[in-house]
Amino acid sequence: MEWKCKLCIVSADTRAQLFRHYRLKHSHYSRVSPLPCLHDSCICTFLSFNALKIHLSRFHRDVCRPSASHTAQAERAAFTCSVCNLKQPFSQETLFTHLRGHLKKRETITCPFKNCNYSTNVYSSFNTHKSRIHANSSDFSDEIVSTENATVNAADLDYEDNFLSQHADSFDNPEDDSVCDSSQLRAQLRHNLSSLFLKMQTVLHVSDMATQEIVDHLSQIFSLSQPLIRDTVKETLQRHDISITEATLNDLVNEVMNTNIFVSATTKGEEMSTKKRRKKFVEKNFPVVKPVQYELEPGCRVAYVPILQVIQEMFKHTDILERIKETKVSQKGHYTSHQDGLYFQKNNLLSSLELSLPIVLYIDDIEIANPLGTSRKIHKLCSVYWVLADLPLKYRSALHVIQLAAICKVPDVQKYGYKTVLRPLLQDLCTLEQDGVFIESLGQSVQGTVLCVVSDNLAAHALAGFMQSFRAGHICRFCNATRDQILSHEVGDGEFCLRTKASHDRNLLTVMQGDQSHSVVGVKGDCVLNESLRHFHTTTGFPPDILHDLFEGIVPVELALCIQEMIRLKYLTLEGLNRKIMSFQYENSDKVNRSRPISKTFARKRSIGGNGHENSTLLRLLPLMIGHTVPDGDGAWTILMDLKDIVELVLSPTFDDESIDYLKTKIQDHRRLLQEVFPEFRLLPKHHYLEHYPDLRRCFGPLVHLWTMRFEGKHRFFKRVIHDTQNFKNVVKTLATRHQHMVSYYLSAPSFFKPHQQASNVSSVLVSVLPDVAQQYIRQKTDSSVIYSTSNIILDGTMYDVGRFVSVGQEGGLPQFSRIEQILLVNSDVMFLCREHKSCYIEHLRSYKLYPGNLTVNNILELNDSLPLSAYHVEGQLLLTPKRYIQLNRK
């Protein structure tokens, strides 16, 4: 039987050989590229080499297969939980892990040992009782642990818990191993050591000074251990009646010391002994694209990372091309990616080629110093990132996939302009558009261009050449609306002329020929990308940003406005609302993104503040917190619920023409009700931008694919680097160099992206104890009497947990929901054993009331939406409020 590595093209004759290949080649990248199980039928992945080793010993025990007599009828132990009636193959570890899971939920359990009636719902009390009363006992109650006859394969038998300690080392047996050339092994170990140093610096953010301290102290420890090695070698030789001279013994000890890769590589004068030498070694042996630094004038520097070279290095990784091919155009009237948008389809370069490179740029300012300190704004930087648009969203949301293009100080941009600062980037983009970049794996050049520029409104207007004031004049880059006009006219009225390529070019020509100190319909000058690229235009290249328009714009303002009104009407008090916010039992990701208490000055500030995540969570969960205290038909409450509907629609990653029309109607109704309930309220420019969203969704595709949320997460890397280095001497070079070293670490990993499926903590389950509906499904897939179960699994970057809800099916045009009871792994398939819940939509709360039903089996393809949800018990009801609009699965 041939064993193949899932991370590279290597194959082996035995599992032991493949196991050692994992340990040598891939274990040091396990955090970046999780180690998959060696067996093709197992989907488990692991973040450490030791976890993989334990898994193989526990679930794939081929290395110590029992005799053939054990493959017939065998007595198998199983335990039955008295709390949830779960029946599962028995081992002490599995039993107590399951019982402690109930204790963590404060559920009462009974002691599983025979003739013991102790019960408790306190985790620590159970552990104390077990250690004091049943320390060495293995006599379990017959009601808890029983045996049954079953025909099982040898590999399915469950051995004693001490199997791991007895047989784990059998993987390391050098027998049946291919001979490895010592020079190749030495080179690989040196690569592993340099990879460790690179990881410490760029991923773990260990400072250079700390790294050098570690190297120096470890080298000293190894050096001081030489006498111990000498004594050990001498005693070993004497034990085998071998006598050698002192000179030979000393020479032998020196050779043993030199075989230690850490000692030989970090000895004074060697290639990894100092920071400078380690950097040189990395740049020579890793795919590092060095940033190019050029000076605008003495002291004014810009660091640029050559985009063409980065693309070439990225495509040397086979993962990139495979993932790009996953993006496909949807059927007419449906939108799932940028390729379904009108702007992509009308781009003569991108839409005409079988393979092209559409690039999404991002530009923003980043404050790397303490914003409250004396150095604020002194080191404020302008950063330009980019990402390949054809990568599916589930892959390009990873921060290491977002690449750095250029970085410089904001005062330099203000002084010299984008055209001067971004000159090298613009030159490379022109080359990419006209000649393309040679992709070695394809043996040809591939052309591409900038699809769009993602940014907040201020940066978009600055780069695009529009007015940067939003208090007066023409404030919209999509039409010719002025600040005063948006108060009395809607976009749907047809009063505003949309900006087109022809009209913008005419306005731009007027500006260039006239007095450039004034604007024409908001146009101040040309966009540098528009000047340089043939297939990019200002009017089609700057999409709106959901984060700044909604979650950091409209949502906090309208929340403040409506909460103030509800407090005035005495539906609630600020203190009561803050108590609800703090005491609410948040679940899963809502715990991380929970809102902070609202400030007492929110009415004066006309905003509740907070970041985008917090405002999104508060708007979504507010109906569950205070909805029962607000009467039906209240104007302020209806405004917030309509806004909630709009947010859900905008966040949807897939939609059709029908949902676009529905969004347009909701936005119009929301604006009119807002002006009716609060006639004194002055609409924000972002309210006007929101009215363009329906049409812009048809043009750009899903706007949630082009928001700034993930790009802003990239800032954290640079802030962390400055925090660790405290080096402001040449900050742009420091940041760009460190970033490129980080990218090289990920590019050198066996896989640039996370695997499609990730599960590690699995347990065996008897098929016979599963519900009939699950047994029927499993028997179609396998004849095994034992399968695996897990409490959580990651599919395409989304985590599914037992207890969470997924949307499956529909009834009467409403989505139905199911609670995940068990996640079962059948060969390489993932199935959810779910409890159906009938749903009833509560208009006042914009939430679904759930009623439990029958058990069903579902797979990922049957879900209406891939995002799992949490349900909350409120006022005796089980309520679920979605995070985004659920497009019903009509397959």
Distance from first to last alpha carbon: 40 Å
Tally the helices: what do you get? Answer: 33
What is the count of β-strands? 30
Per the principal axes of the C-alpha atoms, what is the gross shape? globular
Strand content: 15-25%
Give the mean pLDDT: 87
Q: Main β-sheet: number of strands, strand sense, barrel status? A: 8 strands, antiparallel
Helical residues, percent: 40-55%
The assigned structural class equals alpha+beta
Describe the protein's architecture and organization.
The protein has 33 helices and 30 strands. 40% of the residues lie in helices and 18% in strands. The strands form 9 sheets. Strands 21, 22, 25, 26, 27, 28, 29 and 30 form an 8-stranded antiparallel sheet that branches. It is globular. The longest helix is centred in the middle third of the chain and has 23 residues, at 546-568. The chain folds into 6 domains: 3-65, no CATH class; 68-156, no CATH class; 182-285; 295-329 and 347-465 and 526-542 and 714-719, no CATH class; 546-691, no CATH class; 757-880, SH3 type barrels. α6 (182-202) packs across α32 (731-747), α22 runs antiparallel to α27 (635-650) and α31 (709-725) crosses α32 (731-747). With 891 residues, the chain is an alpha+beta fold.
